[in-house]
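Me: I'm a chemist; would you kindly supply a protein sequence with its structure tokens?

Assistant:
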Amino acid sequence: MKPFLQTLFPGTPRICGHDMPPLTLWRLTCLQAIGSPILTGDAFDLADLLLAIRAVSTPNLIPPDLRPTIRHRWHYRRYKKNRFYLQEQASLFVRWLSLHQNRPELWQPEDDSETRSITAPPVLSQVCALMECGLTHSEAWDTSPGYASWMIAARAERNSDRVQFVDDIEDEKIEAMFEELEQRDESAIIAQAKADLPSAVFEKWLAARQTKKAKP
């Protein structure tokens, strides 16, 4: 539950003198559109960081104004040679990005033959899925990336028994149990799994295991 709560309440860091706004799908797309090296992992300087801040400071569905402001020109002249300041502010920016993009971890069935790849741009796919959830076009673009993923997954779980959220604590216990089970024969594995797993989880696990073993 902690990743979900962090997605809802990511905080408001102050970066390069700016109180950062919530990250939305639109603002993330603006950042991607300028090819920010902060996203790609390439080397960057203070000018790149200030440009990224301008890109994500735009209102919903409005193209960003990327022209340096007087405030940013002054900020660049003052701190451009301060590597420690750049590293500190860039770390805050990256953390701000990541906290808004906490996504749910879902159970992965052993038999994933029915899964297929989405070929549409990921952000557009999320927007369409949010609109299927009942949001308007504008509201969908104004949703944070992380919360969008949680909403889409929650709706998918309501419509399919193949989707199930992972509980971090239970998942660790079950994974350890599976490692121990694999050392036993098949009948003992199934009996122990049935005793230890919730019935819904056991049925999915057993069906996927039998399908997998039936394959040549």
User: Anything to note?
Assistant: The mean pLDDT is 83. The longest strand covers residues 14-15. Residues 30 and 63 are 7 Å apart (CA to CA).
